């Protein structure tokens, strides 16, 4: 399964590392340089925008205050998403 991990803070890094053991994981964060750094350390791929994600599911590893804006941004891509938070 291809999974998009949104958020590359502590929780995002932990979840991405574990999920990458059995799935293909792509990372996204508004801090694109930080996402790239985490992706490189985990040997994963970082994307610069949500529109670049071509995945089966998305995991939100963001603070509660960012969930609403993330969902709005996902909706704006006009793609169909399975979202887990």
Structure description:
The protein has 85 residues and is an alpha/beta fold. It has helices at residues 10-19, 32-42, 64-76, and strands at residues 2-6, 24-28, 45-46, 57-60, 83-84. It has a 5-stranded parallel beta sheet with strand order 3-2-1-4-5, with helices on one face.
Number of discrete helical segments:
3
Bin the helical content.
40-55%
Strand line-up of the largest beta sheet: 3-2-1-4-5
Mean pLDDT: 94
Could you give the distance between the termini? Answer: 17 Å
Strand count: 5
What would you report as the Rg, rounded to the nearest angstrom? 11 Å
Order of helices and strands: EHEHEEHE
- Bin the strand percentage: 15-25%
Overall geometry comes to globular
Major beta sheet summary: 5 strands, parallel
Summing up helix and strand content along with how strands pair, one would put the structural category as alpha/beta
Poorly predicted spans: none
Annotation keywords:
single chain; alpha/beta; 3 helices; 5 strands; 40% helix
Q: Mind sketching the topology for me?
A:
Elements: E1 2-6, H1 10-19, E2 24-28, H2 32-42, E3 45-46, E4 57-60, H3 64-76, E5 83-84
Parallel strand pairs: 1-2, 1-4, 2-3, 4-5
Please sum up the structure shown.
By secondary structure, this protein is an alpha/beta fold. Helices cover 40% and strands 21% of the residues.
């Amino acid at each position: 399964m291809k999974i998009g991990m949104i958020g590359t803070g502590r929780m995002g890094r932990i979840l991405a590392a574990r999920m990458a053991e059995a799935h293909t994981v792509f990372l996204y964060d508004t801090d694109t340089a930080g996402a790239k750094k985490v992706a490189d350390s985990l040997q994963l791929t970082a994307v610069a925008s949500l529109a670049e994600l071509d995945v089966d599911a998305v995991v939100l590893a963001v603070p509660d205050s960012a969930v609403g804006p993330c969902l709005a941004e996902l909706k704006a891509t006009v793609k169909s998403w399975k979202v887990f938070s």
